């Protein structure tokens, strides 16, 4: 691929993307993860709430230590309310670049989809690198500089015909005129949001992150790393060949891969099959307004079968300020970050530092000295977050802080972007989906609460915080345990734009974290 013939990559069962796992709502899945790779690995079931069972959630040094080479870990995936498209991926260093795959959750037996389609197809968008991704991020963290960029985007492992050496291998889908197709789109890419469209065809977005949406008819969508979308497309145009294109959305001055990847949506009728496909008209790379205009139109289905249950009696209000920072270069070292510093990132001015054993094991076994319970509910000081910040220092404190939340609290988190190297940040919370009740540009104001959508907001696990803007989410803290929260742009997560939410046990037996399995990976070997 891409004129390379001898790359070695980490895969699951020899596949890129990895194998699709299918289940029904409410199932419990057991997956035996055997690591025969050269270094420790963990697997996360993205969007699965794992009620009371964080032991299989996967983020390294948060809920477990990595599975060492030549050993196995039997993971239990507990499905409850999830229905639709989710995915699984490695959650250690940058291994998820190639270790990922779909997790499809169909309705329970006897239940129907709230929409009709004739056929379904899964589309996994990914990023391709020319070197081992663990080496890339290890070197970048050592030097403080930017990690290598990917060199291509892929659709189901194929870069498509806009790259040399891959002309003959574009992803293509042959369709029958008049039929409707469900595309399950998974953005497993590392660092870039994407616009997507199919030339001359409307898209109807009907689901996201394992929950249903009110059907939204549109000619393009914007999807961030970590998100999934279920999209209906009816083959109702003149028979021919049409490009389906993923094109990056880049709202930052940071280095980025501005290639596109193309697949082909082709009719099975009689026409000249050698004709060049038609290209869709997608928003330009830097079109922030079109990205935002798509996102704010999304609404939860809120039907009798799939009601919205938005918390309205908020007992805990948290504001989290997001920033990209620079750390001073250590003495006697040359650093390749901005002006000779080291890149870092923070939430409420704290750069997350992962411990050497897992926070969940420390919490469950009451081990002291692994983390502090002092992640603040507000930024350390108030300023014009999205205004001129040039007079303010951009260093943050490096530590392992967790945010403590009581069982069953009704929580609102307001993510506030800043003008410190501003860009869109897709924020992902483990153990929960949440309602996106509000979003806007500039600094959050209490007067915006009256404009919240508390009727049918989208129920998601990953939400884009707009560049120099704010996003408000709500959830009921009904899942006890240790849950990672982080930016799903991998370079920001590696730089420390993360924290851990610890939801305490409830009083009753069924409100407590279940005990760990006997084969938890050890925290010393790896």
Automatic annotation (TrEMBL):
Keywords: Apoplast, Copper, Glycoprotein, Lignin degradation, Metal-binding, Oxidoreductase, Repeat, Secreted. Gene3D superfamilies: Cupredoxins - blue copper proteins (2.60.40.420). GO terms for molecular function: hydroquinone:oxygen oxidoreductase activity; metal ion binding. Signal peptide: none annotated. GO terms for cellular component: apoplast. Its EC number is 1.10.3.2. Binds 4 Cu cations per monomer. The keyword DNA-binding does not apply. Pfam families: Cu-oxidase, Cu-oxidase_2, Cu-oxidase_3. Its main location: secreted. It is found in: Secreted, Extracellular space, Apoplast. GO terms for biological process: lignin catabolic process. Its cofactor is Cu cation. The keyword Translocase does not apply. InterPro entries: Cu-oxidase-like_N, Cu-oxidase_2nd, Cu-oxidase_C, Cu-oxidase_fam, Cu_oxidase_CS, Cu_oxidase_Cu_BS, Cupredoxin, CuRO_1_LCC. It catalyses: 4 hydroquinone + O2 = 4 benzosemiquinone + 2 H2O. PANTHER family: LACCASE (PTHR11709:SF410), MULTI-COPPER OXIDASE (PTHR11709). Lignin degradation and detoxification of lignin-derived products. Belongs to the multicopper oxidase family. This is Laccase. It comes from Eucalyptus globulus (Tasmanian blue gum).
């Amino acid at each position: 691929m891409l004129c390379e013939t001898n790359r070695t990559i980490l895969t699951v069962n020899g596949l890129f993307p990895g194998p699709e796992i299918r289940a029904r709502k409410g199932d419990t899945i057991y997956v035996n993860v055997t690591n025969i790779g050269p270094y420790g690995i963990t697997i996360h079931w993205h969007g699965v709430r794992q009620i009371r069972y964080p032991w299989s959630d996967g983020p390294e040094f948060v809920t477990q230590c990595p599975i060492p080479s030549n050993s196995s870990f039997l993971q239990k995936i507990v499905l409850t309310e999830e229905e639709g498209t989710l995915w699984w991926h490695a959650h250690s260093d940058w291994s998820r670049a190639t270790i990922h795959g779909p997790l499809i959750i169909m309705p329970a037996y006897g239940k129907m989809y709230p929409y009709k389609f004739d056929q379904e197809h899964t589309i996994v968008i990914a990023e391709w690198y020319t070197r081992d991704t663990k080496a890339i991020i290890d070197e970048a963290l050592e030097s403080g500089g930017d990690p290598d960029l990917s060199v291509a985007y892929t659709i189901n492992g194929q870069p498509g015909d806009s790259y040399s050496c891959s002309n003959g291998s574009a992803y293509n889908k042959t369709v029958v005129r008049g039929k409707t197709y469900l595309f399950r789109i998974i953005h497993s890419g590392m660092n870039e949001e994407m616009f997507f469209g199919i030339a001359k065809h409307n898209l109807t977005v009907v689901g996201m992150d394992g929950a249903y949406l009110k059907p939204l008819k549109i000619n393009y969508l914007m999807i961030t790393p970590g998100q999934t979308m279920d999209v209906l497309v009816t083959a109702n145009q003149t028979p021919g060949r049409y490009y389906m294109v993923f094109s990056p959305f880049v709202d930052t001055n940071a280095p980025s891969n501005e290639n596109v990847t193309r697949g082909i949506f082709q009719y099975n009728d009689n026409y000249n099959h050698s004709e060049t496909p038609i290209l869709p008209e997608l928003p330009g790379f830097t079109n922030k307004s079109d990205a935002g205009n798509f996102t704010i139109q999304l609404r939860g289905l809120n039907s009798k079968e799939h009601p919205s249950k938005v918390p309205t009696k908020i007992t805990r209000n948290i504001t989290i300020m997001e920033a990209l920072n620079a750390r001073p270069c250590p003495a006697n070292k040359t650093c390749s970050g901005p002006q000779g510093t080291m890149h870092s990132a923070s939430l409420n001015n704290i750069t997350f530092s992962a411990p050497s054993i897992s926070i969940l094991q420390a919490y469950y076994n009451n081990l002291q000295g692994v983390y502090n319970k002092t992640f603040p509910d507000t930024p350390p000081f108030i300023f014009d977050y999205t205004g001129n910040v040039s007079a303010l220092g951009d260093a943050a404190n490096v530590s392992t802080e967790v945010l403590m939340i009581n069982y069953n609290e009704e929580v609102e988190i307001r993510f506030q972007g800043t003008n410190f190297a501003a860009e869109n940040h897709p924020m992902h919370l483990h153990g929960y989906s949440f309602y996106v009740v509000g979003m806007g540009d500039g600094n959050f104001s209490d007067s915006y609460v009256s404009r919240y959508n508390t009727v049918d907001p989208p129920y998601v696990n990953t939400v884009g915080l707009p560049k120099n803007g704010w996003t408000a989410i709500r959830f009921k803290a009904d899942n006890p345990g240790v849950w990672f929260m982080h930016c799903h742009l991998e370079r920001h997560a590696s730089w420390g734009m993360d924290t851990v939410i610890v939801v305490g046990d409830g009083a009753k037996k069924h409100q407590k974290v279940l005990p760990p399995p006997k084969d938890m990976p050890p925290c010393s070997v790896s």
